[in-house]
Design brief:
9 helices, alpha+beta
Length: 454
C-alpha cells in the first residue's frame, strides 16, 4: 500500500500563493499602447486591459520634465473585452510627451512617447512627411480557420513597418478577419478584434506612429456584407472601440471621418454601412439603378462638401473597395453606377485639385490611372495584402490597360511620402516587401493634379 505523504501546511499555503501570484502576474495589458490621432493640442492613446483591471489611468509628462499629470479613465471596466482610449488635452504643439499606463493604482511597463504636430500654417512651408498604408491583415487561429494551407502569411512585415520613420498608418480595411464562428455572435465580433489586435508582432508597430483606419467586409462582418448585416450596430461599436479615429460618421451612422497631416487631407470612407447587396442589378430597363449604393446619400453629400472645403495640396480619399478599375469584375465603386457617376461628375464640375483614391481589398497592389480629357487624370492606389493570401491577375485584368503599376502574389505595404517646396510638392508611393525592401515606386507632382484654368 502506497504511503500517503502529508505536505506541511506552510508548503501548501506557498503553493496556493504561487498559483495566485502566477494568475495575477498575467499581464493586465492585453494590447497596446496604440497611438490614435495626434493633433496640435490633444492626442489619443489606446490600450486594451484585462478583466482583472478595475482602475486605469495614464501618467503623462513632457519629455525631460519632472512634472507629471494623471488622466483617469472614467469608463466601465471588468468586461470580457476592455479596449480603452485616453484623449489627452491641454498639450503644446511640436512637443514630445512621455506616458505610462497605471492599472489598479500601479505602474505598468506599457508606455511610450508621442510628439504633437507642429504649428506650421502661416509660418513656414508644409513639412515633408511619410505615412504607411495597407489592407488585409490575417492572423491564423487553426481551431476556427478553414482547413488546408493557412491563409495568414508572414507577419514579420509588421516589424519592418515599425522601423519606418513615418507619421501615421492608414489601415485600408480588413484589419482583422472575422470567421464563420464570429459572424452571428456579438461576442465573437469583440473576440476577433481583441485577439488579432493582441498579436505580439503588432505591438511595437502600434506604438511607433499614429493609426487611423476604415473597415471593409471582413472587419465589418461576413464576406461581401453590407447594409443588411443584422449585427452592424454591434460591429460599429467594436470598430469604434478598436480604432480611436477622430470621429465615426454622423447621427450614429457609419464610421466615415476626416483627418489631416501636413498639407494632406484624408477622407476615410465607409463602404459597408449603407452598401446595397453586390447582386442588386446595376441597371434596370437599360438605365443605371439609382437604388444601388455603396456609400449612401448622407456620406456622399458629406464627402462633396468636405472636398470643397479642403485647402490641402493632396486630397486622399480612402475606401475599402477599388474605385476606378474599369475592367475588374470584383468589388469596385463603378458597380454602383449612379452614385459613382455623381462623384465623377462632381469632380469635373467643381474646382477640386489634388484628388487621389487609396483602396485595399484585392490581395494584390496596383495603381490604376483613368484619363479625363480636359481635366487632370485620376489615380486609384491599391495596397494589399499585408498578411493574408495573395492574388494573381487573371482573365480581363491580366493585361489591364488602365494599370500603370502592378504587384501580384506578394505581401507588401505602402509608404507614401510628401516632399518638396511649396507649389512643387511631390507624392511618392513606394511598395515595400516583408523585409522593407523596395518592390516598385511611382510618383506624381502637385501641378499634374490641378484643375485647369478656364
Amino acid at each position: 500500500m502506497r504511503k500517503l505523504i502529508r505536505m506541511p501546511r506552510f508548503f501548501l499555503l506557498s503553493i496556493s500563493i504561487f498559483f495566485q501570484s502566477a494568475l495575477f502576474a498575467q499581464s493586465p495589458v492585453v494590447a497596446g499602447p496604440m497611438l490614435g490621432t495626434i493633433e496640435l493640442r490633444d492626442a489619443k492613446v489606446w490600450f486594451e486591459v484585462s478583466p482583472s483591471v478595475t482602475k486605469a489611468a495614464l501618467k503623462l509628462n513632457k519629455k525631460g520634465d519632472t512634472n507629471f499629470r494623471t488622466i483617469v479613465y472614467k469608463g466601465v471596466l471588468g468586461n470580457d473585452f476592455n479596449p480603452i482610449t485616453f484623449t489627452i488635452g491641454a498639450l503644446e504643439p511640436n512637443t514630445t510627451y512621455e506616458y505610462t499606463l497605471l492599472v489598479n493604482d500601479k505602474p505598468t511597463k506599457s508606455g511610450g512617447q508621442f510628439t504633437t504636430k507642429k504649428l506650421w500654417q502661416w509660418r513656414e512651408p508644409a513639412p515633408d512627411f511619410s505615412f504607411l498604408t495597407g489592407s488585409c491583415a490575417y492572423f491564423n487561429e487553426p481551431a476556427y480557420d478553414r482547413p488546408g494551407v493557412p491563409y495568414g502569411k508572414d507577419s514579420s512585415i509588421f516589424a519592418s513597418m515599425a522601423n519606418e520613420n513615418a507619421a501615421l498608418m492608414v489601415w485600408l480595411g480588413d484589419a482583422w478577419y472575422t470567421r464563420e464562428v464570429d459572424y452571428l455572435s456579438e461576442w465573437g465580433l469583440w473576440y476577433r478584434a481583441s485577439k488579432d489586435r493582441a498579436t505580439p508582432i503588432l505591438q511595437p508597430f502600434l506604438k511607433s506612429m499614429s493609426h487611423v483606419g476604415i473597415w471593409d467586409d471582413h472587419d465589418y462582418g461576413p464576406n461581401n456584407s453590407g447594409a443588411s448585416y443584422h449585427l452592424k450596430e454591434a460591429s460599429r461599436n467594436v470598430f469604434k472601440s478598436y480604432f480611436p479615429n477622430p470621429s465615426a460618421g454622423m447621427n450614429g451612422q457609419g464610421i466615415y471621418t476626416k483627418t489631416s497631416w501636413g498639407d494632406v487631407d484624408f477622407f476615410l470612407l465607409d463602404d459597408r454601412w449603407w452598401r446595397s447587396a453586390d447582386d442588386v442589378k446595376d441597371s434596370l430597363n437599360g438605365k443605371p439603378n439609382p437604388d444601388k449604393v455603396m456609400i449612401g446619400r448622407e456620406q456622399l453629400e458629406w464627402l462633396k462638401d468636405a472636398l470643397l472645403e479642403s485647402y490641402a495640396t493632396f486630397k486622399v480619399i480612402a475606401i475599402g473597395s477599388q474605385v476606378l478599375n474599369p475592367v475588374s469584375s470584383f468589388d469596385r465603386w463603378g458597380r454602383f453606377p449612379v452614385e459613382y457617376q455623381e462623384l465623377m461628375q462632381f469632380l469635373q464640375t467643381n474646382p477640386v485639385s489634388g484628388v487621389l483614391f487609396l483602396s485595399g481589398d484585392r490581395h494584390h497592389s496596383e495603381i490604376i490611372k483613368v484619363d479625363r480629357p480636359g481635366f487632370y487624370p485620376l489615380y486609384d492606389i491599391t495596397v494589399s495584402p499585408l498578411t493574408s493570401g495573395t492574388h494573381t491577375f487573371g482573365k480581363e485584368e491580366k493585361e489591364n490597360p488602365y494599370r500603370i503599376v502592378g504587384i501580384e502574389e506578394r505581401q507588401n505595404y505602402g509608404r507614401i511620402s510628401i516632399t518638396g517646396p511649396r507649389g512643387s510638392r511631390k507624392l511618392t508611393v513606394d511598395f515595400l516587401g516583408i523585409k522593407g525592401e523596395l518592390i516598385k515606386s511611382w510618383s506624381v507632382v502637385e501641378k499634374d493634379l490641378r484643375v485647369p484654368r478656364k
